[in-house]
Every structure is written in structure tokens, then in C-alpha cells.
Specification:
- The protein is α+β, with helices and mostly antiparallel strands.
- It folds into two domains: 65 residues, no CATH class; 165 residues, Aminopeptidase (3-Layer(aba) Sandwich), CATH 3.40.630.
- The strands form three sheets. Strands 8-9-10-11-12-7-13-14 form an eight-stranded mixed β-sheet, with helices on both faces. It has a four-stranded antiparallel β-sheet with strand order 1-4-6-5, with helices on one face.
- The relative contact order is 0.18.
- Functions in the N-end rule pathway of protein degradation where it conjugates Leu from its aminoacyl-tRNA to the N-termini of proteins containing an N-terminal aspartate or glutamate.
- Its main location: cytoplasm.
- It comes from Gilvimarinus gilvus.
- GO terms for molecular function: arginyl-tRNA--protein transferase activity.
Length: 235
């Protein structure tokens, strides 16, 4: 175990919440100068921290505890009927693991994704610099998964390999393949990868009960939620 008590934390000033209207958010970050390795990253993930670029953070809001860390215990996961159909619909995709996504092809897919699906978010408008900073490879843990249809790049997942699982950092995909449910498919393939590696969890970030954009996370069962510093399982 690492000595987490020696880590310095920095807090942002209160700012409008990106997920709940009318709420103020405060975020705490691990000291950017800290020596992060896969063990420390894993321990911080178990405590509810999340990665954005080179920063590890978690919400620390004065009047709200709506953001709840969640993870899938993958050895217990069994796809439901809808998820089985999703896997079947996407059997024609070619899936490969890439060393980098620092190309025009990858960025242009990301740009189209943000412009079509997240115009109301804080990543709009997208820029190449923001893309590279947000989805950078950190601490020799980051892997990229490509999804291609007839050679065309239609989706990318960014995930980090921890000591106890995979952290699903971000997925972006073509918006004109809605029937394929590429976001769901990406999670299902990461679950399969964690199972192959005998890793117990997929970390999905934060779930917020009153945020529609987060509702998809409860479709993966069982699901574990970090409540009062303890992981509680929902079957």
C-alpha cells in the first residue's frame, strides 16, 4: 500500500456543475508533481478518483454528494438480452489495440463526436490541443481500442489498465451508426478484455441518479457503488 497521507490535494473554486442544473461543483486534484505509478493510480481509483489527462480528481462539493463512483465486477457480469443483441449487431467490426490516437483520422472522429453529441458540454468546441491533453497516455497504463467497419474508423475507446481492472476513461464514435449502440458495445468489449486478463473490475467513473446522461451505467449488473467509503453491490 502507498502512503496516501503524504499526497497533497488542491481544490478548485466553486463553479457551475456540468451535470446538474443550478448546482455548484468543487473538484479536488492530486498534486500534479506527485509520483504516480500504476499501484498508486489503482489505490486512488478504489477511493473514487478519476483521470482526466494527467490529472487525478474527484468531486468534493460542499452541498452535494450526487456523484457516486461505480464499477462492474466483471467475473459476475452476464449480458442481458439487449446487450447480447448489441454484441451480435457489431460482429462485423474489426477491433484492434493501438499505441496512439495522435492522428488526423482519430482527431476528426473525436471532433465530429463532440460537435454532434456534446455541444452543451465543457469540451465544446473541440480543439486538437484539448483532445491531446484530455486523452493523453499516462503512467504506462493507457491503451486505445479501435473499432473499424470496412476499414473506416467508427469508434475509439481510451482505457487505463490498473492492477485490479480497467478504467474506462472515454469512448467516442460516429454518430450515424446509432442502431449499433457503439458506446454500449465499447463497454461490453472492455468487460470481455478484463475477463480475459483476469482483472476483477471495470471502473466506469461517476454515476448521478438525476443525470440522464449517466443512466446507462446502471444497465450493467451487478454494479458496485462507492457509498460512505465502502463499495456496495447492486444486483
Amino acid at each position: 500500500m502507498s502512503d496516501l497521507s503524504t499526497l497533497k490535494l488542491f481544490a478548485t473554486a466553486p463553479h457551475p456543475c456540468s451535470y446538474l442544473d443550478g448546482e455548484e461543483a468543487t473538484t479536488v486534484f492530486i498534486d500534479p508533481a506527485a509520483n504516480i505509478d500504476s499501484r498508486l493510480y489503482t489505490e486512488l481509483s478504489q477511493l473514487g478518483f478519476r483521470r482526466s489527462g494527467s490529472h487525478l480528481y474527484r468531486p468534493h462539493c460542499a452541498n452535494c454528494q450526487a456523484c457516486i463512483s461505480c464499477r462492474i465486477p466483471v467475473q459476475l457480469f452476464r449480458p442481458n438480452r439487449t446487450q447480447k443483441r448489441c454484441l451480435k449487431r457489431n460482429q462485423d467490426l474489426v477491433i484492434t489495440w493501438a499505441d496512439t490516437i495522435d492522428t488526423d483520422e482519430h482527431y476528426q472522429l473525436y471532433q465530429r463526436y463532440i460537435e454532434s453529441r456534446h455541444r452543451d458540454g465543457d469540451m465544446y468546441p473541440p480543439t486538437r490541443e484539448q483532445y491531446q491533453t484530455f486523452l493523453s497516455a499516462e503512467w504506462d497504463t493507457t491503451q486505445y481500442i479501435e473499432y473499424r467497419l470496412d476499414g473506416q474508423l467508427v469508434g475509439v475507446s481510451v482505457c487505463d489498465q490498473l492492477l485490479d481492472g480497467l478504467s474506462a476513461v472515454y469512448t467516442f464514435f460516429e454518430n450515424d451508426h446509432e442502431r449499433r449502440s457503439l458506446g454500449a458495445f465499447a463497454i461490453l468489449k472492455q468487460i470481455e478484455k478484463a475477463q480475459e486478463l483476469a482483472l476483477p473490475y471495470i471502473y466506469l467513473g461517476y454515476w448521478i441518479r438525476d443525470c440522464q446522461k449517466m443512466s446507462y451505467k446502471t444497465q450493467y449488473r451487478p454494479l458496485e457503488l462507492l457509498v460512505n467509503k465502502r463499495w456496495v453491490r447492486l444486483n
